[in-house]
Structure formats: C-alpha cells, structure tokens
Amino acid sequence: MPKNMALYDASFGFIPYGPVLRVQRYAVNTAPVLNFSPGDVVLPGGAIVSTPKGYLMDVLDAVVIVTATPALGAITSVEDEDGAPLQYMAAGRVGNGTIAGYLMIADHPDQIYLAQEDDGGSVAIDLVDGSMNADIASATVDAPNTETGRSTQQIDSSSIATTATLTIKLIRPHEDDIPAVDASPYVRWVCQINEHHYGDTIVGVT
Amino acid sequence: MIADHPDQLFLAQEDGATNAIDLNEGSMNANILSGTLQATGSTYRSTQQIDSDTAANTAALNVKLIRPHENDIPADDDNPYCRWVCTLNEHFYGDTIAGV
Hints:
heterodimer; A: about 210 residues; mainly beta; 6-stranded antiparallel sheet; 5-stranded antiparallel sheet; about 0% helix; globular; B: about 100 residues
C-alpha cells in the first residue's frame, strides 16, 4: 500500500535509489569536527592518509557541505578504525589517533539518490520547480538522528533555482508522494549530485 | 578498442620526475606524460604515465587522482613510481565539452 510520506517529517539523508553504481572506501581523520552518518553527503578532504587498510583519500571533516563546492557522494555505511561497523561516527572520535574510522561512499558521479525536502518555511517545492537545482540543508556539525543513526540532511526547499552551482539536481518526486502541497511539504525527491568531485573539468582539492 | 566511459577508473604509474606526488596532492588533478611517438620497446605496452610534476588543483588537467594502489607506498622521492587509481577529468564524452 503506497504511503504518501510528504505528510511526515522523517529525514533520512541521501540514499542511493535504484542501482548502486560504485562504492569506495574513504578515511576520516582523528577527532573530526563533524558527525558522519549513513546518508550524509560529504566533501573531499584533499589529502591521502596512511591507514591500516592502505592509503586512502580523506573526507573534509571540519565544515558541512556548502553551495558551489563539488561533493564526493553519500555515505552508505560507517566503520571504526578496525573496520567494525558503527551506527554513525560521532564528532571528536579519536579512533587509533590517526584516523577515526572509515566511510563507504557511493561516489559515482551519475549515482541517483532519494532525499526528503525540508519544509522551506512551510512551502513545498512547486511542480514547475521540479527540474531545478537545490542545495543541501545540514544540521549543525551534521548531527544525525541519534536514535536511528541516520543522516538528517535534507533538500533545502528554499534554495531551488536554475543556478548551475547548486549541489543537487531534482529529477522527480517519489512515486508514492504528492508534491507541491504546502500543508504536507516533506516530499521525497529522486535527485543526483549536480556538482560532483569526479565530474568533468572539476578543480582538484588541496 | 577503447574504454571510453567518462566515469571509468584507471590505474597508472606516476613518472616520479622530479619528485613523487605528495600525500597532500593525492586529490589533485594531473596531466598525462607520453613518450615520443609512443615508442613501446619489447612489451608493446603504453609508456604513458601520470606527470607527477603537474599535480595541481587546476580544472584543465587530464586526470583526477583518487588514491594510491593498495600495495604501493606513495610520496617516497627515492621510490617515486607509485601506481594511482585515477579517472579522466577532461573527457570527450563529459559534460559541456566542445565537439571535435
């Protein structure tokens, strides 16, 4: 029985929708400022780190995702410094003193995701805005839902625009959700990353 | 036959001249270095390499570095031939690319 989830504020971050095209392992440096949880879209850190699982690229652990900055992808799972699964990685985690742990990230630039729009001040994304770009809204230091361990990132409804430097591109609403109703504005949208680190002619990261 | 998908990952050796790629350059872009007329010696394999000295954050470089091969120790100037997992940053079938 389809359920119109636009009625419920139940964010879950960004989860791969349809085939998962690629997942790769990345490192989190010790004592990160941010929390990291499944569903978080993260930024590349710009350095290679020596870890027990080899040399890996790190992720940016100091600031949440911001507009006009190419993203790396969304976290699919979190591991501690020994590779054991974590519900989420809490800010400040020390790990082995070099890395706090690992993130498995769906980092293919064509990966499609599902994410909930925020209420944008109680105004849902309009139908005529449904092919536009948008930014991601993050909680302070990417705080997760500590009960479920899921990301609380959402599509920032009020950022909808045709601007090329916004982080994601909307594709369509989830088939069970009724979009563009201001009284029930938590529609799940199928979307993809518009500004991707592995996109074309993208600057490197230091 | 050409692996021509714009998101294809590749493995290539850095040329190590003048120095190995540093760890803090491992998410940068770089250019490809080719031999004259692609002379291949006895193996007939390509001699193309990642041009270590070109590692920079410039958008208009050929490849984007992702990480070193799991068996190689990077950033060692005495052993500077690290293999890198990389992808083409400037691809003919990429987005907003001029026709030819």
